[in-house]
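Quick one from the shared queue. A colleague (R.T.) flagged Polysaccharide deacetylase as missing a structural entry in our internal table.

Convert sequence to structure tokens.
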Amino acid sequence: MNSSFSLLRIRVLLVSFLTLICILLPSLPCAHATSATPVGETHVAKWKGNRKAVFLLMFDDSWPSHWQVAVPELVKRGMVATFYVVPRKGEYSKFEKEWKKVVEQGMTLGNHTMTHDGFQGAEDSEMEIGGCTHYLLDFVPGKNPRLISFALPGVTDYNFGEGNSLKSLLGQTSPRGPW
């Protein structure tokens, strides 16, 4: 069995598992605070609604099953997630209009590079990471500059360029400026 088929099976299983979690989540007990702060005492909430924890859902690689299955289930339950997209990947570009609907339904898009192919050197990494950031700033309405979440793809062929690191590269490509 080749490795790309194995990776595809793992991703399909992961999406299925996360979809199942979304379906079952409403029946699970919620992590609410149990007592109100008495009048006159100060209490700083760590999470919105004074919840004890937060649960993040993140999807990557721009698979059509994200907008076909996961997004409708999330919307039905009043939940949001971050979808890390790859604008030059066929699965994304073929359905770009559907991804616009994903944003309109309240979901967040994150940077997962332009091609998911890795990169060699500073110029190539700028195109992959910076290009995706600029694409998202244009594609998703909102004020600029703003924070764009980044997830490094799972390929192993990375070279950030001599003297560069991922942190320095993200600082250069961020619309907010260097860190």
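The chain has a mean pLDDT of 79.
The two ends are 44 Å apart (CA to CA).
Added to the table.
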